[in-house]
């Protein structure tokens, strides 16, 4: 079953002579439980695609369906709720809220929606991420690798349909990068969590089951490397 369908997606920034076509008619679909890397050089349109998959921008044309919901048919309020429940976003610089503890950062998206946090699920995720002893700490009391674990926890706490990571290891040393990739792959393989990672790093991309290469706003290659 496809959990993500991208249909003829295009994005043009600006108007007239200065318009930039960042994405042209991109189409692909991703099955539940897949691990896909989207790779491409700087300026190829990766961030634009990520923002469109994550519901944080709107396309010029085309559709994004996540678990059968046409997300750009939703109004802003509905889209914000859908995003917090169904799209787990992980950023290069973690985007944690500095004045909130680890536990508060992890549960904030659910609390904003008035959803009850499933304590068993929360405890399980915290345990896997090795954050048991860190729940009352503030982000600046943690190492970079630990901050990224918190952001993975925040992304997973609502059991999202897809997990979307933007250069998740881009700010980490090689040991922490490897640990974060192992954790992401563990959630993917053990819990069938669909995972999409955007990267410019071929070593990261080669860990995926499938690599979609983007060049000049188009899909240049789409290869399954682990069937
Ligand atoms: P990547 O993430 O692969 O580096 P981007 O999606 O950031 O690529 O950029 C794709 C193209 O769109 C580039 O030519 C970039 O300059 C342009 N672009 C990105 N964001 C904007 C914006 N907000 N306004 C105008 N042009 C933009
Ligand atoms: P890592 O092993 O992830 O590279 P570090 O070497 O940065 O982590 O940190 C080692 C230990 O020190 C970690 O347990 C981390 O929580 C703790 N630590 C790192 N930075 C700080 C800080 N600013 N305040 C308190 N504890 C910290």
TrEMBL record:
UniProt superkingdom: Bacteria
Gene Ontology MF term list: ATP binding
SMART domains: AAA (SM00382)
Pfam family, one: ABC_tran
SUPFAM superfamilies, per the entry: P-loop containing nucleoside triphosphate hydrolases
PANTHER family: CELL DIVISION ATP-BINDING PROTEIN FTSE, LIPOPROTEIN-RELEASING SYSTEM ATP-BINDING PROTEIN LOLD
Similarity comment: family membership: Belongs to the ABC transporter superfamily.
Protein name (record): ABC transporter ATP-binding protein
Origin species: Aliibacillus thermotolerans
């Amino acid at each position: 079953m496809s959990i993500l369908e991208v249909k003829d997606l295009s994005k043009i920034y600006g108007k007239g002579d200065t318009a930039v076509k960042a994405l042209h008619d991109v189409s692909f679909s991703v099955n539940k439980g897949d691990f896909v890397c989207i790779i491409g050089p700087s300026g190829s349109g990766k961030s634009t695609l990520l923002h469109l998959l994550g519901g944080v921008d709107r396309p010029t044309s085309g559709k994004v369906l996540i678990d059968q919901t046409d997300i750009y048919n939703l109004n802003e309020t509905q889209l914000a709720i859908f995003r917090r429940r169904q799209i787990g976003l992980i950023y290069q610089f973690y985007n944690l809220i500095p004045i909130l503890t680890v536990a508060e950062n992890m549960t904030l998206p659910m609390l904003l929606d008035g959803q009850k946090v499933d304590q068993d699920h929360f405890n399980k995720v915290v345990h896997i991420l090795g954050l048991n002893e860190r729940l009352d700490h503030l982000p600046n009391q943690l190492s970079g690798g630990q901050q990224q674990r918190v952001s993975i926890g925040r992304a997973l706490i609502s059991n999202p349909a897809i997990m979307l990571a933007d250069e998740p290891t881009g700010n980490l040393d090689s040991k922490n990068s490897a640990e974060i990739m192992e954790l992401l792959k563990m959630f993917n393989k053990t819990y069938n969590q669909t995972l999409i990672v955007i990267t410019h790093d071929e070593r990261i991309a080669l860990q995926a089951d499938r690599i979609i290469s983007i060049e000049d706003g188009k899909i240049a290659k789409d290869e399954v490397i682990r069937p």
